[in-house]
Design goal:
Helices cover 36% and strands 20% of the residues. By secondary structure, it is an alpha/beta fold. It has an eight-stranded mixed β-barrel with strand order 1-2-3-4-5-6-7-10.
């Protein structure tokens, strides 16, 4: 299944993921991370997203501050920090299970699951949880990695292929905004060569499709760039 990322003005969500070919078939609500992690009652999300079967919670900011913000997370990567993160996810997982809604965690460089290595380690020790990962490989790319982005994506691909904790894979790009900050973008509008994305993440994409896991993109044009 291929899904298209659509923007919405819904007050409680950042975006909707719609199933390609049926604009009425809502795949998931993607919550704003500030809503998700600041202590709001998850029951409010369930009520607001009652038409969705899945809720996606970004782990970290959707548009990170790059290297500087990633460095600021070092203090959180302690045993106590991981214990708190695991407890937060456990509570969310239990509440979503009771509501019969699938919980998906979207890692990024600006959160606890800040790279492929720690994310895969977390996935292995969280096998008993019902939640899954919406993998976003480009979300781990920060400014300093752009020069060698091809190598970084190859390593991400090799580390993540076959991880059963993955519930969906988002394939996108990044670009610099007017302030020079690296922000999320479609593949076609991004600054990473689309051929590099398609080639270096090709194994992950093919594995996800074969395993029946949705591929999420920003628009139909990106599907063509990926050869899908």
């Amino acid at each position: 299944m291929h899904c298209i990322l659509e923007q919405t003005d819904h007050s409680s969500s950042a975006s909707l993921l719609l199933e390609q070919g049926d604009p009425q078939a809502i795949f998931a609500h993607m919550l704003d991370p500030l809503i998700a992690w600041v202590g709001n009652d998850p029951s409010e999300w369930i009520e607001a997203c009652e038409s969705a079967q899945r809720i996606v919670v970004p782990c970290g900011r959707q548009e990170s501050d790059g290297d500087e913000h990633a460095a600021s997370l070092l203090a959180s990567w302690s045993q106590a920090g991981w214990a708190q993160f695991d407890e937060n996810v456990l509570q969310l997982d239990q509440q979503m299970n009771e509501a019969k809604i699938e919980l998906m965690i979207r890692p990024s460089s600006s959160g606890m699951l800040s790279d492929a290595i720690c994310t895969m380690a977390w996935a292995r020790r969280s096998e008993d949880l019902g939640c899954s990962l919406m993998l976003d490989p480009i979300g781990w790319i920060v400014e300093s990695m752009l020069r060698d982005v091809s190598d970084h994506l190859s390593r991400i691909n090799d580390l993540c292929v076959g991880c059963e904790k993955i519930g969906a894979v988002m394939i996108r790009s990044v670009r610099h905004d007017q302030a020079g900050v690296l922000v999320e973008s479609s593949i076609g509008e991004g600054e990473i060569d689309s051929a590099i994305i398609a080639d270096r993440l090709g194994g992950l994409i093919r594995w996800a499709i074969d395993a029946g896991k949705p591929i999420v993109v920003h628009n139909d044009a990106d599907l063509k760039l990926l050869g899908l």
